[in-house]
Amino acid sequence: MKLWAGRIQQEADQRLNDFDASIHFDSRLYKQDIGGSMAHATMLRDCGILSPAECEQILAGLSGILRELESGELLIDPESEDIHTFVEAELTARIGEAGKKLHTARSRNDQIALDLRLYLRDESTLLIAQLQELIRVLCDKAEEHTETVMPGYTHLQRAQPITFAHHLLAWAQMLLRDIGRLTDCCGRMNRCPLGCGALATTTYPIDRDMTAQLLGFEGPVLNSLDGVSDRDFCVEFVSALALVMTHLSRACEEIVLWCSWEFRFVELDDRFATGSSIMPQKKNPDIPELVRGKTGRVNGDLLALLTMLKGLPLAYNKDLQEDKEAVFDACDTVKMALEAFTPMVETMAVNRENMRAAAAKGFLNATDCADYLTKKGLPFRDAYKITGTLVAFCIENGQTLETLPLEEYRQFSDVFEEDVYEAIALDNCVNGRNVLGGPAGEQVRLQLEDIRDQLQR
């Protein structure tokens, strides 16, 4: 029996049933649906709409259904229209007339809005925990490499020397902001839509504050039209996930490059790499490539939600059924990506020697050379031009700033002294940038301490 039987006299065409049904994807909301129903029944009892005996029957019946679904003893009927229909039908089959009263003062419109908010609130907690674990791994890895010098890049060209720790902590900062976005998103979605009804609440004397409190919400949604018809909390949630994937994808692009023979900065553990079916020498970075690829999938989920919402009049429209698959797919994809990415980073080997060798080439200390002249009294623009001319001379003559004799330096400026070699030494170039947020060892350790403090809080 359909929940909407009565006005519609004929049996639905099977093609309508197949197209209309959502049970094959919204069945994952069973815990949230049952939890919301238990809170609703408790509130109906306290408001005198259900008798204590009826409420007791309903709560016992719902507890049994939840327990059996969790154990696998009860299977969700794929012929049900949606998870709400299945739970209500199963409850009524078990306890009789009292089960039919559960839906009093409630619509599937506010019911599904509630289920989704509860689900995303739960998933946000899991995702934040995964992000925190990845940040801990990055911090642990960074702690091992505060002295590991590597090139920093702009335009994918070697630019200035940094440390591997400094680079890893840049990833960590991005992920901390992702946690902040998910936390903010949870705060805004933490309003209870139950009691909004189909669109205009109900004539029953219900207590919406009570159900909100029972379910751990900050309070009820304050406009019933808004409560059942908007999915901005879904958009915001998936937007935050799209940024998580974007940050992971950027890191993955670097890992793919670093694994190549052209870089050889890192090597993935054999457990997190694959080979070739034809080329026996290959060790392929499949995990970072897949994370990079799946980012487009989550971006697509976000676009699907935005497109679905953009032309909908208030209040509920069946289009909103399309929210769940996009949300579920984005959530599943990010969780799976984090599950693979985190241990991959934790176990990858770092080639300190290759990183340092790359940093020693490409004139990464040219800015330090210009700064040296500036500190001797030259205007920076003059120092910049002199250093640029020096670099061109070195390239033409197969020299580096470290190997160029002092007498050659002095042909370009008589300000140069023997101490120029100390100023352009690689480690000094890194540790000389002892400015808040910089790559110097002292600053990196401060960053580490701050990130760990944030995780602790």
Please describe the biggest sheet, giving its number of strands, its sense, and whether it closes into a barrel.
2 strands, antiparallel
Q: What is the H/E order?
A: HHHHHHHEEHEHEHHEHHEHHHHHHH
Rg, nearest Å: 30 Å
Strand content: under 5%
Note poorly predicted spans: none
Helix content: 55-70%
How many helices? The count is 20
Describe it:
Strand 1 and strand 2 form a beta hairpin. The chain starts with 13 loop residues before the first helix and ends with a helix. The protein is 63% helix and 5% strand. The longest helix has 37 residues, at 108-144. The chain contains 20 helices and 6 strands.
List the helices and strands and how they pair.
Blueprint lengths: L13 H7 L2 H4 L3 H17 L5 H20 L11 H13 L1 H4 L7 H37 L4 E6 L2 E7 H26 L1 E2 L15 H7 L4 E2 L3 H6 L2 H28 L6 E2 L18 H24 L13 H25 L1 E2 L1 H9 L5 H10 L4 H17 L9 H7 L7 H4 L2 H6 L9 H16 L1
Parallel strand pairs: 3-4
Antiparallel strand pairs: 1-2, 5-6
Overview features:
single chain; 457 residues; mainly alpha; two-stranded antiparallel sheet; two-stranded parallel sheet
